[in-house]
């Protein structure tokens, strides 16, 4: 992203502590529209806390988080939660798919919460499952699927509303390397296809190769921030 490109999301001097533990210390960064950025660094360096502050799950103690002209750090839990539902997608290490719903119902859910009718939501969900190669599992519940299949369902659910930003925290951390690569390749392809910016948190340096830019963190601070020379593998 160049200096003239508007940021889709920007953190300014964000700080967050848990009691005596400083998790984030003066973190500033921007994410451009459609940009795929990896956040890497050792366990405990503050990656998840950063993602939670940027996505409005946590309110930082200090600093600002700007999204579409609003400082989320100053907004209520209700307003932030609405934003997460409408403008953000989230994907965690364990998919958080709803165990009692089928794959198709899981993916249709965010559309229905946004007011879509059942039939329309179901048809769109089915297209996303097909796109991710798990269309034949549309009627199955998560308990009947492998971890990689569940994570693809979770990915479809995170992207189905066409969010401005996808926040992914170690999305392949619980998968074997083949399943992990399939999920990542699909994540990058589908996010690029609809212009969803991605903040991809990982402690796995190989995962960062899928991104346009890598931010490394250490002890709650940004250590480096720069374009990846190869421009990503996908
Ligand atoms: N809920 C919490 N309560 C207390 N300390 C926490 C909590 N979450 C994270 N921490 C601490 O904050 C620091 C940053 O954690 P985290 O953001 O989870 O790092 P990472 O995702 O890079 O592993 C660590 O020292 C961690 O132990
Ligand atoms: Mg973490």
Automatic annotation (TrEMBL):
The keyword Transport applies. InterPro entries: AAA+_ATPase, ABC_transporter-like_ATP-bd, ABC_transporter-like_CS, ABC_transpr_LolD-like, MacB-like_ATP-bd, P-loop_NTPase. PROSITE patterns: ABC_TRANSPORTER_1 (PS00211), ABC_TRANSPORTER_2 (PS50893). Keywords: ATP-binding, Nucleotide-binding, Transport. Residues 9-233 form the ABC transporter domain. Gene3D superfamilies: P-loop containing nucleotide triphosphate hydrolases. It comes from the Bacteria. One of its GO terms (molecular function) is ATP binding. This is ABC transporter ATP-binding protein. It comes from Dactylosporangium vinaceum.
């Amino acid at each position: 992203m160049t200096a003239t490109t508007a940021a889709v999301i920007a953190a300014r001097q964000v700080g967050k502590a848990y009691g005596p533990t400083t998790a984030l210390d003066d973190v500033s960064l921007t994410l451009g529209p459609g940009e795929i950025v990896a956040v890497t660094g050792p366990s405990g360096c503050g990656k998840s806390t950063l993602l939670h502050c940027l996505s409005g799950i946590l309110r930082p103690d200090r600093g600002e988080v700007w999204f579409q002209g609003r400082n989320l750090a100053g907004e209520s839990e209700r307003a932030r939660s609405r934003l997460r539902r409408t403008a953000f997608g989230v994907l965690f290490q364990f998919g958080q798919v709803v165990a009692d719903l089928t794959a198709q119902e899981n993916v249709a859910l965010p559309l229905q919460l946004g007011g879509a009718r059942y039939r329309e939501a179901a048809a769109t969900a089915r297209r996303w499952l097909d796109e991710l190669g798990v269309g034949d599992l549309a009627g199955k519940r998560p308990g009947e699927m492998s971890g990689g299949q569940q994570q693809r369902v979770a990915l479809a659910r995170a992207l189905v509303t066409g969010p401005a930003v996808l926040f992914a925290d170690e999305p392949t951390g619980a998968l074997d390397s083949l399943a992990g690569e399939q999920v990542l390749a699909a994540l990058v392809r589908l996010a690029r296809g609809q212009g969803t910016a991605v903040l991809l948190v990982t402690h796995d340096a190989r995962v960062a190769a899928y991104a346009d830019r890598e931010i490394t963190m250490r002890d709650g601070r940004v250590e480096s921030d720069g374009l990846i020379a190869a421009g990503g593998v996908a």
